[in-house]
Amino acid sequence: MIEAQGVVKIFGGRTILHGIDATFETGKTNLIIGKSGSGKTVLLKSLVGLYDIDGGDIHYDGRSTISLNRKQKDQLRREVGMLFQGSALFDSKTVEENVRFPLDMFTDMSLEERRERANFCLQRVNIINSNHLYPSEISGGMQKRVAIARAIALNPKYLFCDEPNSGLDPVTASVIDELISEITKEYGITTIMNTHDMNSVFSIGEKIIFISEGNKAWEGSSDTIVDSGCQQLEEFIHTTRNIVKHLK
Amino acid sequence: MFLLKPINHIGQYTLFLGQTLRKPEKWNVFGRNILAEIDKVGVDSLGIVTLISLFVGAVITIQTANNLDNPFIPTYTVGFAARECIILEFSPTIICLVLAGKVGSNISSEIGTMRITEQIDALDIMGVNSAGYLAAPKIIAMIISVPLLVIYSIAIGIYGGYLAGKFTGLVPPDDFIYGIHFSLKPHYIPYSLFKSTIFGFIIASISSYCGYYTKGGALEVGKSSTTAVVISSIVILMFNLVITQLILS
Ligand SMILES: Nc1ncnc2c1ncn2[C@@H]1O[C@H](COP(=O)(O)OP(=O)(O)O)[C@@H](O)[C@H]1O
Ligand SMILES: [Mg+2]
Prior knowledge:
The complex is a heterodimer of chains A (248) and B (249).
Chain A: E1 2-11, E2 14-24, E3 29-33, H1 40-48, E4 55-60, E5 63-64, H2 70-77, E6 80-83, H3 95-106, H4 111-124, H5 140-152, E7 158-162, H6 170-187, E8 190-195, H7 198-204, E9 207-212, E10 215-221, H8 231-247
Parallel strand pairs in A: 3-8, 3-9, 6-7, 7-8
Antiparallel strand pairs in A: 1-2, 1-4, 4-5, 9-10
Helix pairs in contact in A: 3-4, 3-5, 4-5, 5-6, 6-7
Chain B: H1 4-20, H2 27-42, H3 46-67, H4 76-116, H5 119-126, H6 130-168, H7 173-181, H8 188-212, H9 218-248
Helix pairs in contact in B: 1-6, 2-6, 3-4, 3-6, 4-6, 4-7, 4-8, 4-9, 6-7, 6-8, 8-9
């Protein structure tokens, strides 16, 4: 379980997050939703420690992150996997080298064992026979799946995903969503995923946090989201639905 | 007020260097990265260094010969002057300015692209010291490669001068060879190599820094690589003056 307590983030005098409280549950796909620019990425990067927060605290299963020293932080990072908006694969490395990278850096496994583990993770995301290709040689959907394989290589306890299905066609997007949801269940991971896609909310959302202009405006589950009683959230869902209607 | 920005950068650059100097996560990965970088920054620069050294060596010789047509000055002086010029300034400084353009922009755009595509965030998340992982092998590779490239450039430059003297008939080969042995000051070579080692460090560290702190998109990657070349060139010229003043006078 990850708990955010009054998380504040300021960039150059502008307050982006105004004290966010939220809990993200173990073994569940926790979603952070909100309009583009509402602060989802900043919140996720603050939770994961890429940004130093300017107020509040974040607890990882009871471990308060502001009181950890650098060594303990590095230790905690070994338990964290992250998917980025643009997949963030290393473009100078092949698919297999990308997945093997965390193993190369942080384990004492033999090359044989590392290869085996990398192949296991690649198979888990249904990537076969692409080990020697470079990220630029595979499709966007495949890149996202390789990124998932890399994120789970070290058996993380916490998985962070920043709009993992943005820029993908709807079919591929739902494949990525399902994959993340399955892996979360399979390994009992605490998964936190950013999205502005209502399809993800209804298909894999378990716990949902709605962010509006840097404030938590609503918290609940996908069953209760339709009659949330929160005006901003209703507008958000409504606009998304209208867009879908126009498409039809 | 305009002084605040450079001072800010110097502070951030110092912190950045401190971060790159931390112990690497895995020594064997670190070693392999250094070798790969030597291949990229050193071996891949051989072509341009050969070309420039050969031609500039030739031109220095021809111009010196044309300007020394006084019958009281012996022709071997041309070989002597060309040697001094190549060892002291051309090879260590001009070649490093060229490398600042070629290698510096390369380093900065590579790291800058990694920044804007969140590859650096991916490293940080894993608990890899991204500054150390990316910049340290490049800095070490430059410190090793640049002095070797400079020695090579000195040899090629003098050879270019020899060929030019021979084929234009301005300096007979025997005179040129006598000239390049004439009044050799042995400490000039270590001075030249010392200078170029410093310049190699300047190019790699400043370019890595510019790339690492790129913000924005593809346009900014281009901008920071231009900044990297300009700033490393200026710093090289400043240090050149300081080092020359301190060591040779
Ligand atoms: N590194 C940064 N420096 C300054 N402002 C930032 C930075 N990152 C994000 N912001 C600002 O924070 C706000 C929220 O951004 P973000 O979290 O990326 O939104 P989104 O919900 O689309 O992910 C935006 O107004 C953005 O301009
Ligand atoms: Mg975002």
